[in-house]
Amino acid sequence: MEKRFFTIFAAFVMFGTAITASAAPKSAAMALDTVRTTYDDGRVSRIYTVQKGTDVREGVALSFHPNGKLAVEAPYRNGKLDGVLRSYDENGKLRESAGYLDGEEEGLSIVYFENGKKKSRETYRRGVLNGVSETWDEKGKLRRQIPYVNGQIHGVVKFYDEMGNIQEDVRFERGLRHGKFHRYTFGKVTLEAEFQNNRCVKNCNF
């Protein structure tokens, strides 16, 4: 169970100056209230600021694990996520970072393994996937690349084996397989097929 209480700032606070550089951009002075919630043992579970007299979040909101370690730092502006949101595990290791603009994902979103290596990387524009989405294994080997345009797979999707060698690739157009499909062994093409509108039309016995 969490306990909640309010602390009213008596003075004006410049939001964007507190806690971290990932906060929303600086703006004019604004009166803020601070909200804290605690675990049963009294440790802080959350602390964030809101525009005075409202529930509209402003500035960096922090959440903590029961052991006191920082769990999430989330920058807000006018009640919407705006900046880089970061989440951490109970040991303080960064597990995810994601850019936001006016409440929508914007820019890079990266997920990390416990060992600190990247697990995935995606790029968003106005909340929609755009660019190449990449996935790695825990050893740091690239395993998959998927290109997106306006939320749809568009371009050549590539899959790699645990040694980093290409295994397969296939072309997509607007979310559908359309074009050549290749399978590789030790970097050499061992199978070539063809798709049209998501249906295999050539060398389909695989």
Automatic annotation (TrEMBL):
Domain of life according to the entry: Bacteria
InterPro entries: MORN_2 (IPR011652)
Keywords: Signal
Protein name: MORN variant repeat protein
Pfam families: MORN_2
Keyword Signal: yes
Provenance organism: Fibrobacter succinogenes (strain ATCC 19169 / S85)
Signal sequence segment: 1-23
